[in-house]
Write a structure and sequence with these properties.
The longest helix has 25 residues, at 435-459. Helix 9 packs across helix 10 (335-355). A four-stranded parallel sheet has the order 4-3-9-10, with helices on both faces. It has a four-stranded antiparallel sheet with strand order 5-6-7-8. It has 15 helices and 15 strands. With 492 residues, it is of the alpha/beta class. The chain is globular, with a radius of gyration of 27 Å. The chain has three domains: 3-278, Rossmann fold (3-Layer(aba) Sandwich); 295-428, no CATH class; 435-491, no CATH class. Bound molecules: zinc ion.
């Protein structure tokens, strides 16, 4: 029996605004789509939070034995400034400013994105499709929407008729916005737009002469509207009715609302059963913004190179910090909060290291099955990672009590205990026990210091001290090698 058969998972559905029992479209299978990054700059820490949460959800589904197809796209065209239908393509603008090809921008930041996710121990999604790789399919969907009477062409651009759609559907079903209020931004009202109604959104935009990224279509040389790619790629890879669609809260409107309208127009039904949205990440209690300097990149946390931080933190500490908050709550990132998480993380890893060395007794004084049940119950309650972590720390207390002889565990329970701790800490939360890596960083610092002192001793012709440093290091297995480039070392 697979684990999912004995675990009833509940998911908070942004569409119904309630926690619902999760029932996949196809038993034992899950189709999940998460809106990926627009690759015109380094991945944002707020986006990292979103992707990290869905990584943990993905990991939990796999742990439960589901076969998961996880699609996370790369937006490499069509995403205009201000998330609206006017303005320049974000990638094309960056390319123009830096005088490089748009695809160079895409390549640079896609590589950066993958590099960051690898450092933070993400599992790769099953498919990572790009908008530019699906232009043909996007043109086909626009034709379909026009055929269904909800798309119209004006001057080479095609728009979605929100007012007409809303006559027999509910535009605003996800975001709760009223159609009268759903005016994307004031710029749409400045008379520059061809739209029939300001609420309408672009399916295809005719490219002006400056626009570098352009494709042929029946309407003009241009590019697809940003919302279209997700409708196209989710239905292509997951079908026109799939289980989970996720993203940051800021995507609920207009992006996800528009996705629903497009997909429903083509298939005749709601495309997604469970909509999931992650909440915002603040930095020192304020919104993150490059312009105010209240801003930090995921990579800077790992190097400590940001004035907000007192030091560098390991990727697992950042992961642990993220999982200490519920994904639907606002999370405030700060140096103090990370330092507190680091203490907790070390305490946990200390316990994990001694877990396999615990000695067993004939009977157990602690109830491992009850504890295990609570761990699963926390995750089954809409992925409540902070509650899971509190149970994991109950596990840490067990470990310490057993070590100190204040509690006992029998061998069956110990196997169960180790398996469950490993599953939740490493497989589901995706933490790594990199405490040893930290120790080797410290050794490197100490040996480098001794090499520097030996060099100074040699410069002062203090051969006794210089030989003493070399010999005593060798005695503990650290061999110094003098070369043209300076002194290096190896550990045997
Ligand atoms: Zn999307």
């Amino acid at each position: 029996m697979k684990l999912f058969e004995e675990n009833q998972l509940k998911i908070y559905n942004s569409l119904s605004k309630t926690k619902e029992v999760f029932t996949p479209v196809h038993k034992g299978h899950i189709g999940m789509y998460v809106c990926g990054p627009t690759v015109y700059s380094n991945v944002h820490l707020g986006n990292l939070r979103t992707f990290m949460f869905f990584d943990v959800a993905f990991r939990y589904f796999l742990h439960l034995g589901y076969k998961v197809r996880y699609v996370r796209n790369i937006t490499d065209a069509g995403h205009l400034e201000n998330d609206a239908d006017e303005g320049e393509d974000r990638i094309a603008k960056k390319a123009r400013l830096e005088e490089i090809e748009p695809m160079e921008v895409v390549q640079r930041y896609t590589v950066d994105f993958h590099d960051v996710l690898k450092k933070y121990n993400f599992l790769p999604p099953s498919i990572e499709p790009t908008a530019t790789g699906h232009i043909v399919e996007q043109i086909e969907m626009i034709k379909d929407i026009i055929d269904k009477g909800l798309g119209y062409e004006i001057n080479g651009s095609v728009y979605f008729d929100v007012i007409a759609y809303n006559k027999s559907n509910h535009y605003g079903i996800l975001s709760g916005r009223k159609i009268e209020d759903a005016i994307h931004n004031t710029r749409a009202l400045d008379g520059q737009s061809d739209k029939r109604n300001p609420q309408d959104f672009a399916l295809w935009k005719k490219a002006d002469e400056r626009h570098i990224m352009r494709w042929s279509s029946p309407w003009s040389e241009g590019f697809p509207g940003w919302h279209l790619e997700c409708s196209v790629m989710s239905s292509k890879y997951l079908g026109d009715k799939f289980d989970i669609h996720g993203g940051g809260l800021d995507l609920k409107f207009p992006h996800h609302e528009c996705e629903i309208a497009q997909s429903k127009t083509c298939s005749g039904h709601d495309p997604v059963n469970y909509w999931m949205h992650t909440n915002m990440l603040l930095l020192n209690g304020q919104k993150m913004a490059k312009s105010t300097g209240n801003y930090i990149l995921p990579n800077e946390i790992l190097t400590g190179e940001n004035k907000i931080l007192s030091k560098a933190f390991s990727p697992s500490v950042v992961r642990f910090f993220n999982m200490q908050a519920n994904y639907r709550s606002v999370l405030d990132f700060s140096n103090d909060a990370l330092e507190a998480s680091e203490k907790g993380y070390y305490k946990l890893m200390d316990a994990m290291t001694s877990l396999s060395n615990l000695s067993t007794q004939k009977s157990s004084s602690i109830n491992i099955s009850e504890w295990k049940h609570k761990c699963y119950a926390a995750m089954n309650d809409d992925f409540n990672t902070p509650v899971l972590i509190s149970h994991i720390f109950e596990g840490v207390r067990f470990i310490n009590q057993i070590k100190e002889g204040k509690a006992s565990i029998n061998s069956n329970d110990l196997v169960n205990f180790i398996t469950t701790m490993n599953a939740f800490v490493y497989d589901v939360l995706g933490l790594l026990n990199d405490v040893n890596d930290q120790a080797s960083d410290k050794i490197d610092g100490v040996v480098s210091l001794l090499i520097k002192l030996r060099k100074e001793a040699r410069e002062n012709k203090d051969w006794d001290l210089s030989d003493q440093i070399r010999d005593e290091l060798l005695a503990i297995g650290i061999q110094l090698k003098d070369g043209r480039e300076g002194t290096t070392y190896s550990i045997s």
